[in-house]
Amino acid sequence: MLHFIGHGDFDPGRGEGVLALTREDGRADLVAAHRLVDLLRQARPMPRLVMLNSCSGAAAAADDLFSGTAAALVRGGVSAVAAMQYEISDPAAVVFARGFYAAIARGRGVDDAVSSGRVAILGLSDRTLEWITPVLYLRGHDTRLFTLQTPAENTNREDTQRDDADAGRGGQPGDTISPGAAGGPRGDSPAGRPGARAPQPAPTPVLVPPSHLARTLTGHTSSVSGVAFSPDGRLLATAGYDGTAWLWDPATGEPRRTLTGHTDIVSGVAFSPDGRLLATAGYDGTVRLWDPATGSRMRTLTGHTDSVSGMAFSPDGRLLVTASGPAVRLWDAATGEPRRTLTGHTDSVSEVAFSPDGRLLVTVSGPAVWLWD
């Protein structure tokens, strides 16, 4: 996880959230949210949880709810971000962090941890409204990001005795005993005995809303053969049997651009990890690289003698691998120059993929799976 303590804001001029990082000369360098996402993607592994202990980390433009720093991090791949939607005082930020991390350390979900942090802020004063400032952005429905085990030395003899007693009453070791259940000689509950573990409330179920159709994108005149989201989630690329590739705004469903130039079916699309390049593969044996921001074609990769069936960018974005028939080629993504041709498969290669660290490439041809350096 990553905990950031510093200044932050929403910059209307940039249209996105910013964090202030201090330079060596003491001046502030305003880092835009999309740049922060790029930085975090360099971490291995990428942080699952980010705490933005800064003002306005959750603020966003009225017409783009995903323009704030916290939302940009979640769209960029962070599982959960706790952030402040307004200014927050130092005392409130400190007690919120204390309550938040104490809950995480006890194995609670991040949603419960935010609630614990808010309760801690209320402990400062019953008149403060700062408890509404912290908010949680969650990428999915899973709120438990970490699996924590209680150290063996923390298990005392009384816990063991209670577990044995529970088992003797027909229960299982470790069962939670509700208040009022049979307990000591006077009928008191185990929670009333000194040193006994208090009953823990049942975990709050996470309600998953029913699936529904958000929008339908129409424009292709034939079957769609490939789709890919840009790394920041702001663009969706589609490839079609009509020989075109389209760029869409997934938030509105509106088409942004139509990419033409292939003379046959466009079989696939892929964004580079930084989102600055879009590759399209065609049955015409070419791979074309585009600037998704403008829709202009940057270069055409030629050399394959058959339709291109698979492609993938390396995690650092420096290499592009393409498959055509039994041949696999590696290209320099920046220049379009061929680096290597990998041969050996005797049948068409259907899938290619890089390992997360970029040190291995896998190619699939029929029942054969090959790993390359």
CATH homologous superfamily assignment of the largest domain: YVTN repeat-like/Quinoprotein amine dehydrogenase
Radius of gyration: 27 Å
Mean pLDDT reading:
81
Number of strands: 22
* Helix count from the secondary structure assignment: 5
Into which percent range does the helicity of residues fall?
Answer: 10-25%
Q: CATH top level of the largest domain?
A: Mainly Beta
Instruction: Report the CATH topology name of the largest domain.
Output: Methylamine Dehydrogenase, Chain H
Quaternary state of this entry equals single chain
Strand content: 25-35%
Protein described:
- By secondary structure, this protein is α+β, with helices and mostly antiparallel strands.
- The protein has three domains: 2-138, Rossmann fold (3-Layer(aba) Sandwich), CATH 3.40.50; 152-189, no CATH class; 224-372, YVTN repeat-like/Quinoprotein amine dehydrogenase (Methylamine Dehydrogenase, Chain H).
- The chain is built from five helices and 22 strands.
- It has helices at residues 33-40, 69-75, 90-105, 110-122, 157-168; strands at residues 2-5, 7-11, 16-22, 28-32, 49-53, 80-84, 134-138, 224-229, 236-240, 245-249, 254-259, 266-271, 278-282, 287-291, 296-301, 308-313, 319-324, 327-332, 338-342, 351-354, 361-365, 368-372.
- The protein has a four-stranded mixed sheet, with helices on both faces. The protein has a four-stranded antiparallel sheet with strand order 8-9-10-11, with no helix packed on it.
- Strand 21 (361-365) and strand 22 form a beta hairpin.
- Helix 1 packs parallel to helix 2 and helix 3 crosses helix 4.
- The longest helix has 16 residues, at 90-105.
- The two termini are 31 Å apart.
- The model is unreliable at 152-194 (pLDDT under 50).
